[in-house]
Design brief:
Number of strands: 4
Number of domains: 1
Distance between the termini: 104 Å
Helix content: 25-40%
Structural class: alpha+beta
Strand content: 5-15%
Mean pLDDT: 69
Low-confidence stretches: 1-18
Order of helices and strands: EEHEEHHHHH
Length: 181
C-alpha cells in the first residue's frame, strides 16, 4: 500500500540518536552520567558502597524500592537512580519522585541548551569529594513543605480529651424560681 518511512531523524553514519542509546544513572549528588557501553550494576555500586541502584521505571509512589542485583546488566535507554542503603525496604515517597523530576528537568534543560558539562571521574586520592553526596535524599522532607503549611501544622492542637474533674454547681429549684420573678 505504500512505503514505510521512519519518522526518526538519522544522524551521521546512520545512527538515529547516539545519546539515546545509553544508560543514564543519577548519582546521589544529583550528578547525571551516561554510559554508552554495557555496564553491570556491580561496577557502579563498587564506586558507591553505601548505596543501591533502582530502575526508575519501577518507582511508584507507595510501592517498595526494589534494588537491582549486583550481577544484573543495566539496560540501554533506561534510567537508574542511587538510593542510600538505609532506604532499602522503604516505600517510595513523593519527595523521591519530586527530586527525580527536578534532576531530570534540570538535565533536560542542560542538554537542550547545549551547555554540556563534563564531570571528571572521582579520584581515589581525593576520597572526601567522592564519598559525600551533595544532596541527601533523607533530609528532603524539611524543604518540601511550604512555609505556610508548616506554620499551620505547628498551630494545630491535638484533640486529646482533658482528664480534669468537672465541678458542677448545685442550684436549688427555689433559687431558680426567685430569679425568674
Amino acid at each position: 500500500m505504500g512505503n514505510y518511512i521512519s519518522c526518526t531523524l538519522s544522524g551521521p553514519g546512520g545512527k538515529s540518536n547516539p545519546g539515546k542509546d545509553a544508560v543514564t544513572v543519577i548519582f546521589p549528588g544529583c550528578d547525571v552520567r551516561r554510559f554508552d557501553e554495557p555496564t553491570k550494576a556491580a561496577e557502579l555500586m563498587f564506586d558507591m558502597p553505601n548505596f543501591f541502584l533502582v530502575n526508575a521505571k519501577s518507582l511508584q509512589i507507595g510501592e517498595r524500592l526494589t534494588a537491582l542485583n549486583a550481577d544484573q546488566d543495566l539496560e540501554m535507554r533506561n534510567v537508574y537512580v542511587f538510593f542510600p542503603m538505609k532506604r532499602l525496604s522503604s516505600v517510595v515517597k513523593t519527595e523521591d519522585m519530586g527530586q527525580l523530576l527536578l534532576t531530570a528537568s534540570k538535565e533536560n534543560k542542560r542538554v537542550h541548551f547545549g551547555s554540556v558539562k563534563v564531570s571528571p571521574e572521582c579520584d581515589r586520592s581525593n576520597d572526601k569529594d567522592c564519598s559525600s553526596p551533595k544532596l541527601n535524599l533523607d533530609d528532603f522532607e524539611e524543604y518540601s513543605m511550604p512555609e505556610y503549611f508548616r506554620h499551620r501544622m505547628s498551630m494545630c492542637r491535638s484533640k486529646k480529651p482533658m482528664l480534669e474533674t468537672i465541678v458542677e454547681e448545685h442550684f436549688s429549684l427555689r433559687f431558680m424560681m426567685m430569679m425568674e420573678n
